[in-house]
Protein backbone atom coordinates (compact mmCIF):
# COMPACT_ATOMS: atom_id res chain seq x y z
CA UNK A 1 0.00 0.00 0.00
CA UNK A 2 1.47 3.37 -1.04
CA UNK A 3 1.64 6.07 1.60
CA UNK A 4 0.16 9.51 1.11
CA UNK A 5 2.65 12.36 1.41
CA UNK A 6 1.90 14.30 4.57
CA UNK A 7 3.48 15.37 7.88
CA UNK A 8 1.38 14.44 10.91
CA UNK A 9 1.97 15.44 14.55
CA UNK A 10 0.24 13.70 17.51
CA UNK A 11 0.11 15.55 20.85
CA UNK A 12 -1.14 13.56 23.88
CA UNK A 13 0.10 12.94 27.43
CA UNK A 14 -0.84 9.24 27.22
CA UNK A 15 2.14 7.35 25.76
CA UNK A 16 -0.05 4.35 24.89
CA UNK A 17 -2.38 6.49 22.80
CA UNK A 18 0.60 8.17 21.16
CA UNK A 19 2.15 4.85 20.19
CA UNK A 20 -1.05 3.24 18.90
CA UNK A 21 -1.98 6.32 16.83
CA UNK A 22 1.54 6.57 15.42
CA UNK A 23 1.71 2.87 14.45
CA UNK A 24 -1.65 3.15 12.68
CA UNK A 25 -0.97 6.41 10.83
CA UNK A 26 2.56 5.42 9.77
CA UNK A 27 0.94 2.79 7.57
CA UNK A 28 -0.84 5.52 5.60
CA UNK A 29 1.29 8.70 5.75
CA UNK A 30 4.95 9.44 4.99
CA UNK A 31 5.82 11.20 8.27
CA UNK A 32 4.21 10.77 11.70
CA UNK A 33 5.76 12.32 14.82
CA UNK A 34 4.56 12.41 18.41
CA UNK A 35 5.14 14.48 21.57
CA UNK A 36 3.68 13.93 25.06
CA UNK A 37 3.95 17.51 26.29
CA UNK A 38 2.18 20.42 24.55
CA UNK A 39 4.94 22.81 25.66
CA UNK A 40 7.07 21.12 22.98
CA UNK A 41 4.72 22.19 20.18
CA UNK A 42 6.53 25.43 19.29
CA UNK A 43 9.90 23.66 19.10
CA UNK A 44 8.38 20.90 16.97
CA UNK A 45 7.11 23.44 14.44
CA UNK A 46 10.56 25.04 14.22
CA UNK A 47 12.01 21.68 13.26
CA UNK A 48 9.25 20.45 10.94
CA UNK A 49 6.36 21.63 8.81
CA UNK A 50 3.16 19.82 9.84
CA UNK A 51 0.11 19.41 7.66
CA UNK A 52 -2.14 17.94 10.38
CA UNK A 53 -1.97 18.00 14.19
CA UNK A 54 -3.95 15.55 16.36
CA UNK A 55 -4.32 17.43 19.66
CA UNK A 56 -5.63 16.05 22.94
CA UNK A 57 -8.04 18.34 24.82
CA UNK A 58 -6.77 17.69 28.35
CA UNK A 59 -3.24 17.20 29.66
CA UNK A 60 -3.68 16.88 33.42
CA UNK A 61 -4.93 13.91 35.37
CA UNK A 62 -8.68 14.25 36.00
CA UNK A 63 -8.97 17.45 33.93
CA UNK A 64 -12.04 17.52 31.65
CA UNK A 65 -12.61 21.22 30.94
CA UNK A 66 -10.65 21.19 27.69
CA UNK A 67 -9.28 24.70 28.43
CA UNK A 68 -5.67 23.63 27.92
CA UNK A 69 -6.52 22.01 24.61
CA UNK A 70 -8.23 25.22 23.47
CA UNK A 71 -5.18 27.22 24.51
CA UNK A 72 -2.83 25.05 22.42
CA UNK A 73 -5.27 25.00 19.52
CA UNK A 74 -5.12 28.79 19.32
CA UNK A 75 -1.31 28.65 19.63
CA UNK A 76 -0.97 26.18 16.73
CA UNK A 77 -3.21 28.30 14.52
CA UNK A 78 -1.08 31.32 15.39
CA UNK A 79 2.15 29.48 14.59
CA UNK A 80 0.90 27.83 11.39
CA UNK A 81 -2.51 29.03 10.14
CA UNK A 82 -2.46 26.60 7.22
CA UNK A 83 -2.12 23.51 9.45
CA UNK A 84 -5.33 21.53 10.06
CA UNK A 85 -5.94 20.68 13.74
CA UNK A 86 -7.98 17.65 14.82
CA UNK A 87 -9.12 17.40 18.45
CA UNK A 88 -8.98 14.09 20.32
CA UNK A 89 -11.55 13.92 23.10
CA UNK A 90 -13.39 11.45 25.30
CA UNK A 91 -17.03 10.65 24.50
CA UNK A 92 -18.45 12.91 27.20
CA UNK A 93 -16.49 15.94 25.99
CA UNK A 94 -18.08 16.34 22.56
CA UNK A 95 -19.55 19.74 23.48
CA UNK A 96 -16.04 21.00 24.21
CA UNK A 97 -14.82 19.70 20.85
CA UNK A 98 -17.66 21.54 19.07
CA UNK A 99 -16.59 24.76 20.81
CA UNK A 100 -13.02 24.09 19.69
CA UNK A 101 -14.17 23.83 16.09
CA UNK A 102 -15.60 27.32 16.41
CA UNK A 103 -12.09 28.39 17.44
CA UNK A 104 -10.52 26.92 14.30
CA UNK A 105 -10.25 23.15 14.66
CA UNK A 106 -11.37 21.33 11.49
CA UNK A 107 -12.83 18.21 13.15
CA UNK A 108 -12.65 16.01 16.24
CA UNK A 109 -11.99 12.35 17.00
CA UNK A 110 -13.70 10.56 19.88
CA UNK A 111 -11.52 8.21 21.96
CA UNK A 112 -11.42 5.27 21.72
CA UNK A 113 -11.46 5.63 17.93
CA UNK A 114 -12.22 3.27 15.08
CA UNK A 115 -9.09 2.85 12.98
CA UNK A 116 -10.82 3.41 9.63
CA UNK A 117 -12.56 6.50 10.97
CA UNK A 118 -9.28 7.96 12.30
CA UNK A 119 -7.44 7.41 9.00
CA UNK A 120 -10.35 8.85 7.03
CA UNK A 121 -10.55 11.96 9.26
CA UNK A 122 -6.80 12.59 8.99
CA UNK A 123 -7.01 12.14 5.20
CA UNK A 124 -9.76 14.77 4.99
CA UNK A 125 -7.80 17.19 7.18
CA UNK A 126 -4.69 16.69 5.04
CA UNK A 127 -6.68 17.42 1.89
CA UNK A 128 -7.98 20.62 3.50
CA UNK A 129 -4.45 21.76 4.37
CA UNK A 130 -3.17 21.10 0.87
CA UNK A 131 -6.16 22.87 -0.63
CA UNK A 132 -5.50 25.96 1.49
CA UNK A 133 -1.83 25.94 0.56
CA UNK A 134 -2.76 25.55 -3.10
CA UNK A 135 -5.06 28.57 -2.89
CA UNK A 136 -2.22 30.70 -1.50
CA UNK A 137 0.05 29.45 -4.25
CA UNK A 138 -2.62 30.27 -6.82
CA UNK A 139 -2.89 33.84 -5.52
CA UNK A 140 0.83 34.35 -6.20
CA UNK A 141 0.54 32.55 -9.53
CA UNK A 142 -2.44 34.69 -10.56
CA UNK A 143 -0.32 37.82 -10.22
CA UNK A 144 2.43 36.20 -12.30
CA UNK A 145 -0.07 35.05 -14.93
CA UNK A 146 -1.60 38.53 -15.07
CA UNK A 147 1.81 40.00 -15.80
CA UNK A 148 2.29 37.31 -18.46
CA UNK A 149 -0.96 38.30 -20.18
CA UNK A 150 0.16 41.93 -20.16
CA UNK A 151 3.67 41.05 -21.29
CA UNK A 152 4.72 42.92 -24.37
CA UNK A 153 6.30 40.20 -26.49
CA UNK A 154 4.92 36.80 -27.43
CA UNK A 155 7.79 35.58 -29.61
CA UNK A 156 11.23 36.66 -30.70
CA UNK A 157 10.93 39.09 -33.59
CA UNK A 158 13.34 39.04 -36.51
CA UNK A 159 14.66 36.98 -39.40
CA UNK A 160 18.38 37.75 -39.21
CA UNK A 161 20.81 34.83 -39.04
CA UNK A 162 21.61 35.73 -35.42
CA UNK A 163 17.95 35.52 -34.38
CA UNK A 164 17.42 32.29 -36.33
CA UNK A 165 20.37 30.78 -34.48
CA UNK A 166 18.82 31.70 -31.13
CA UNK A 167 15.43 30.35 -32.23
CA UNK A 168 17.07 27.08 -33.29
CA UNK A 169 18.75 26.80 -29.88
CA UNK A 170 15.42 27.45 -28.13
CA UNK A 171 13.73 24.67 -30.14
CA UNK A 172 16.42 22.22 -29.01
CA UNK A 173 16.58 23.07 -25.30
CA UNK A 174 12.95 23.97 -24.57
CA UNK A 175 11.57 20.39 -24.42
CA UNK A 176 14.22 19.43 -21.85
CA UNK A 177 14.37 20.45 -18.20
CA UNK A 178 18.00 21.60 -18.48
CA UNK A 179 19.09 24.72 -16.62
CA UNK A 180 19.63 27.57 -19.07
CA UNK A 181 21.89 30.63 -18.80
CA UNK A 182 21.00 33.51 -21.12
CA UNK A 183 23.76 36.05 -21.75
CA UNK A 184 23.46 39.42 -23.45
CA UNK A 185 23.55 43.18 -23.02
CA UNK A 186 20.66 44.96 -21.36
CA UNK A 187 17.69 45.33 -23.67
CA UNK A 188 18.57 42.40 -25.97
CA UNK A 189 15.53 40.35 -24.98
CA UNK A 190 16.67 37.96 -22.27
CA UNK A 191 13.21 37.67 -20.70
CA UNK A 192 11.66 37.27 -24.15
CA UNK A 193 14.00 34.32 -24.72
CA UNK A 194 13.21 32.81 -21.32
CA UNK A 195 9.47 33.05 -21.97
CA UNK A 196 9.94 31.47 -25.42
CA UNK A 197 11.74 28.52 -23.78
CA UNK A 198 8.91 28.14 -21.27
CA UNK A 199 6.24 28.47 -23.96
CA UNK A 200 7.79 25.59 -25.93
CA UNK A 201 8.48 23.36 -22.92
CA UNK A 202 6.49 20.57 -21.26
CA UNK A 203 5.69 23.12 -18.55
CA UNK A 204 4.01 25.57 -20.94
CA UNK A 205 0.61 25.25 -19.23
CA UNK A 206 2.17 25.99 -15.83
CA UNK A 207 3.25 29.34 -14.37
CA UNK A 208 6.25 31.41 -15.47
CA UNK A 209 7.61 33.62 -12.69
CA UNK A 210 10.20 36.30 -13.41
CA UNK A 211 12.45 37.57 -10.61
CA UNK A 212 14.81 40.55 -11.00
CA UNK A 213 17.52 39.63 -8.51
CA UNK A 214 19.16 43.01 -8.97
CA UNK A 215 16.14 44.81 -7.52
CA UNK A 216 15.71 42.67 -4.37
CA UNK A 217 17.40 44.08 -1.23
CA UNK A 218 19.78 41.58 0.38
CA UNK A 219 17.73 41.58 3.58
CA UNK A 220 14.62 40.39 1.69
CA UNK A 221 16.31 37.88 -0.62
CA UNK A 222 15.39 34.72 1.31
CA UNK A 223 11.87 35.92 2.08
CA UNK A 224 11.15 36.82 -1.57
CA UNK A 225 12.60 33.64 -3.04
CA UNK A 226 11.95 31.02 -0.37
CA UNK A 227 9.14 32.51 1.74
CA UNK A 228 8.75 32.97 5.50
CA UNK A 229 6.55 31.95 8.37
CA UNK A 230 4.44 34.39 10.35
CA UNK A 231 6.51 35.99 13.12
CA UNK A 232 9.86 34.98 11.59
CA UNK A 233 10.94 38.64 11.79
CA UNK A 234 9.44 41.98 12.79
CA UNK A 235 7.42 42.66 9.63
CA UNK A 236 6.40 39.02 9.02
CA UNK A 237 2.74 39.52 9.92
CA UNK A 238 1.58 36.50 7.90
CA UNK A 239 2.96 33.45 6.12
CA UNK A 240 4.50 34.25 2.76
CA UNK A 241 4.95 31.96 -0.23
CA UNK A 242 8.27 32.57 -1.96
CA UNK A 243 8.83 32.69 -5.71
CA UNK A 244 10.28 29.18 -5.86
CA UNK A 245 7.24 27.63 -4.18
CA UNK A 246 4.87 29.67 -6.34
CA UNK A 247 6.73 28.53 -9.47
CA UNK A 248 6.73 24.85 -8.51
CA UNK A 249 5.58 22.84 -11.50
CA UNK A 250 6.51 25.68 -13.87
CA UNK A 251 9.50 27.87 -14.70
CA UNK A 252 11.37 30.46 -12.63
CA UNK A 253 13.43 33.09 -14.44
CA UNK A 254 16.23 34.62 -12.35
CA UNK A 255 17.35 37.81 -14.10
CA UNK A 256 20.54 39.70 -13.22
CA UNK A 257 21.98 36.69 -11.40
CA UNK A 258 25.48 38.14 -11.82
CA UNK A 259 24.62 40.82 -9.24
CA UNK A 260 24.05 38.35 -6.38
CA UNK A 261 26.54 38.74 -3.49
CA UNK A 262 28.60 35.64 -2.73
CA UNK A 263 26.79 34.74 0.50
CA UNK A 264 23.43 34.78 -1.30
CA UNK A 265 24.91 32.74 -4.15
CA UNK A 266 25.61 30.03 -1.57
CA UNK A 267 21.97 29.98 -0.44
CA UNK A 268 20.72 29.80 -4.02
CA UNK A 269 23.15 27.01 -4.87
CA UNK A 270 21.90 24.92 -1.94
CA UNK A 271 18.30 25.23 -3.19
CA UNK A 272 19.24 24.34 -6.77
CA UNK A 273 21.27 21.33 -5.67
CA UNK A 274 18.71 19.87 -3.26
CA UNK A 275 15.56 21.08 -5.01
CA UNK A 276 14.28 21.99 -1.58
CA UNK A 277 13.51 25.30 0.14
CA UNK A 278 13.52 26.21 3.81
CA UNK A 279 11.27 29.11 4.76
CA UNK A 280 12.56 31.73 7.18
CA UNK A 281 11.32 30.89 10.65
CA UNK A 282 11.35 27.12 10.21
CA UNK A 283 13.92 24.37 9.89
CA UNK A 284 11.69 22.09 7.82
CA UNK A 285 12.24 21.69 4.08
CA UNK A 286 9.79 21.64 1.18
CA UNK A 287 10.40 19.92 -2.14
CA UNK A 288 10.12 22.07 -5.26
CA UNK A 289 9.81 21.15 -8.92
CA UNK A 290 10.93 24.07 -11.10
CA UNK A 291 12.70 24.70 -14.39
CA UNK A 292 15.43 27.29 -13.72
CA UNK A 293 16.45 29.85 -16.34
CA UNK A 294 18.99 32.51 -15.41
CA UNK A 295 20.23 35.61 -17.21
CA UNK A 296 22.90 38.26 -16.84
CA UNK A 297 24.70 40.96 -18.81
CA UNK A 298 27.94 40.17 -16.98
CA UNK A 299 30.84 37.98 -18.08
CA UNK A 300 30.37 35.26 -15.46
CA UNK A 301 33.50 33.34 -16.48
CA UNK A 302 35.51 36.46 -15.77
CA UNK A 303 33.65 36.91 -12.47
CA UNK A 304 34.48 33.30 -11.54
CA UNK A 305 38.16 33.93 -12.28
CA UNK A 306 38.05 37.00 -10.03
CA UNK A 307 36.24 34.95 -7.34
CA UNK A 308 33.26 37.27 -7.54
CA UNK A 309 30.95 34.44 -8.62
CA UNK A 310 30.91 30.87 -7.34
CA UNK A 311 32.28 28.40 -9.86
CA UNK A 312 29.96 25.60 -8.68
CA UNK A 313 26.91 27.85 -9.07
CA UNK A 314 28.12 28.92 -12.52
CA UNK A 315 28.21 25.32 -13.74
CA UNK A 316 24.93 24.53 -11.99
CA UNK A 317 22.97 27.21 -13.87
CA UNK A 318 24.43 26.86 -17.36
CA UNK A 319 23.88 23.35 -18.57
CA UNK A 320 23.15 25.20 -21.82
CA UNK A 321 24.25 28.75 -22.62
CA UNK A 322 22.39 31.04 -25.02
CA UNK A 323 24.09 34.27 -26.12
CA UNK A 324 21.85 37.04 -27.46
CA UNK A 325 23.21 39.43 -30.10
CA UNK A 326 23.04 43.21 -29.55
CA UNK A 327 20.77 45.15 -31.89
CA UNK A 328 23.77 46.72 -33.70
CA UNK A 329 24.66 43.19 -34.91
CA UNK A 330 21.17 42.46 -36.27
CA UNK A 331 20.20 45.75 -37.93
CA UNK A 332 18.21 43.92 -40.63
CA UNK A 333 15.61 43.13 -37.95
CA UNK A 334 14.87 46.81 -37.24
CA UNK A 335 11.96 47.11 -39.75
CA UNK A 336 10.11 44.13 -38.22
CA UNK A 337 10.73 45.38 -34.68
CA UNK A 338 9.57 48.89 -35.57
CA UNK A 339 6.41 47.50 -37.21
CA UNK A 340 5.69 45.47 -34.07
CA UNK A 341 6.11 48.45 -31.76
CA UNK A 342 4.11 50.78 -34.01
CA UNK A 343 1.22 48.32 -34.06
CA UNK A 344 1.13 48.36 -30.27
CA UNK A 345 1.32 52.14 -29.91
CA UNK A 346 -1.29 52.69 -32.61
CA UNK A 347 -3.70 50.79 -30.36
CA UNK A 348 -2.46 52.34 -27.14
CA UNK A 349 -2.60 55.98 -28.29
CA UNK A 350 -5.35 55.54 -30.90
CA UNK A 351 -3.23 57.04 -33.65
CA UNK A 352 -2.10 55.91 -37.09
CA UNK A 353 -1.81 53.66 -38.93
CA UNK A 354 1.77 54.89 -39.29
CA UNK A 355 4.00 54.57 -42.31
CA UNK A 356 7.80 54.81 -42.48
CA UNK A 357 9.89 55.36 -45.59
CA UNK A 358 13.14 53.52 -46.38
CA UNK A 359 15.34 56.55 -45.66
CA UNK A 360 14.02 56.56 -42.07
CA UNK A 361 15.09 52.95 -41.62
CA UNK A 362 18.51 53.85 -43.02
CA UNK A 363 18.80 56.53 -40.34
CA UNK A 364 17.78 54.08 -37.63
CA UNK A 365 20.41 51.63 -38.85
CA UNK A 366 23.12 54.27 -38.44
CA UNK A 367 22.41 54.61 -34.73
CA UNK A 368 24.58 52.53 -32.38
CA UNK A 369 21.66 51.45 -30.10
CA UNK A 370 23.54 51.07 -26.80
CA UNK A 371 20.17 50.34 -25.15
CA UNK A 372 19.36 47.72 -27.80
CA UNK A 373 15.72 46.72 -28.44
CA UNK A 374 14.50 48.54 -25.34
CA UNK A 375 15.98 51.80 -26.66
CA UNK A 376 14.42 51.19 -30.08
CA UNK A 377 11.02 50.66 -28.47
CA UNK A 378 11.27 53.93 -26.55
CA UNK A 379 12.32 55.73 -29.74
CA UNK A 380 9.31 54.37 -31.64
CA UNK A 381 6.92 55.22 -28.81
CA UNK A 382 8.21 58.78 -28.57
CA UNK A 383 7.96 59.26 -32.33
CA UNK A 384 4.40 57.89 -32.34
CA UNK A 385 3.36 60.27 -29.56
CA UNK A 386 4.98 63.44 -30.91
CA UNK A 387 4.49 62.98 -34.66
CA UNK A 388 1.96 65.37 -36.17
CA UNK A 389 1.17 63.05 -39.06
CA UNK A 390 0.87 59.34 -39.75
CA UNK A 391 3.89 59.49 -42.01
CA UNK A 392 6.90 59.17 -39.68
CA UNK A 393 9.89 61.13 -41.00
CA UNK A 394 13.56 61.35 -40.14
CA UNK A 395 12.79 64.43 -38.07
CA UNK A 396 10.62 62.33 -35.75
CA UNK A 397 13.72 60.36 -34.77
CA UNK A 398 16.27 63.20 -34.82
CA UNK A 399 16.48 63.12 -31.03
CA UNK A 400 18.56 59.93 -31.38
CA UNK A 401 21.31 61.92 -33.09
CA UNK A 402 21.08 64.66 -30.47
CA UNK A 403 22.01 62.09 -27.85
CA UNK A 404 25.30 61.25 -29.58
CA UNK A 405 28.54 62.39 -27.94
CA UNK A 406 29.31 65.10 -30.47
CA UNK A 407 25.86 66.68 -30.10
CA UNK A 408 26.25 67.79 -26.48
CA UNK A 409 26.84 71.49 -26.08
CA UNK A 410 28.37 71.97 -22.64
CA UNK A 411 28.36 75.73 -23.12
CA UNK A 412 24.61 75.65 -22.78
CA UNK A 413 24.85 74.29 -19.20
CA UNK A 414 21.66 72.32 -19.82
CA UNK A 415 21.87 69.74 -17.03
CA UNK A 416 19.47 67.31 -18.69
CA UNK A 417 21.52 67.25 -21.89
CA UNK A 418 24.71 66.72 -19.94
CA UNK A 419 23.16 63.98 -17.79
CA UNK A 420 21.72 62.22 -20.85
CA UNK A 421 25.13 62.36 -22.52
CA UNK A 422 26.87 60.97 -19.41
CA UNK A 423 24.39 58.12 -19.01
CA UNK A 424 24.66 57.14 -22.66
CA UNK A 425 28.46 57.44 -22.63
CA UNK A 426 28.73 55.19 -19.55
CA UNK A 427 26.44 52.54 -21.08
CA UNK A 428 28.46 52.58 -24.29
CA UNK A 429 31.78 52.39 -22.43
CA UNK A 430 30.67 49.30 -20.50
CA UNK A 431 29.06 47.63 -23.54
CA UNK A 432 25.56 47.75 -22.11
CA UNK A 433 26.47 46.52 -18.61
CA UNK A 434 24.08 48.66 -16.57
CA UNK A 435 25.56 47.68 -13.21
CA UNK A 436 29.05 48.85 -14.17
CA UNK A 437 27.71 51.99 -15.87
CA UNK A 438 25.66 52.89 -12.78
CA UNK A 439 28.66 52.33 -10.51
CA UNK A 440 30.84 54.64 -12.61
CA UNK A 441 28.16 57.34 -12.49
CA UNK A 442 27.72 56.90 -8.74
CA UNK A 443 24.09 55.79 -9.13
CA UNK A 444 22.10 52.86 -7.79
CA UNK A 445 20.71 50.44 -10.37
CA UNK A 446 17.21 51.75 -9.72
CA UNK A 447 18.30 55.37 -10.26
CA UNK A 448 20.13 54.33 -13.42
CA UNK A 449 17.04 52.65 -14.86
CA UNK A 450 14.94 55.73 -14.07
CA UNK A 451 17.35 57.92 -16.03
CA UNK A 452 17.42 55.47 -18.92
CA UNK A 453 13.63 55.58 -19.00
CA UNK A 454 13.70 59.37 -18.85
CA UNK A 455 16.09 59.72 -21.79
CA UNK A 456 14.68 56.85 -23.85
CA UNK A 457 17.78 54.66 -23.54
Record keyword descriptors for this entry.
457 residues, alpha/beta, five-stranded parallel sheet, 19 helices, elongated
What does this structure look like?
This protein has 457 residues and is α/β, with parallel strands linked by helices. It is 46% helix and 14% strand. It is built from 19 helices and 14 strands. The strands form four sheets. The protein has a five-stranded parallel beta sheet, with helices on both faces. It has a five-stranded parallel beta sheet with strand order 7-8-11-6-12. The chain has a two-stranded antiparallel sheet with strand order 9-10. β3 (52-56), α3 (67-79) and β4 form a beta-alpha-beta unit. α17 (415-429) packs across α18 (434-441) and α18 packs across α19 (445-454). The longest helix is centred in the first third of the chain and has 35 residues, at 115-149. The radius of gyration is 29 Å and the shape is elongated. The protein starts with a strand and ends with a helix. 37% of the residues are buried.
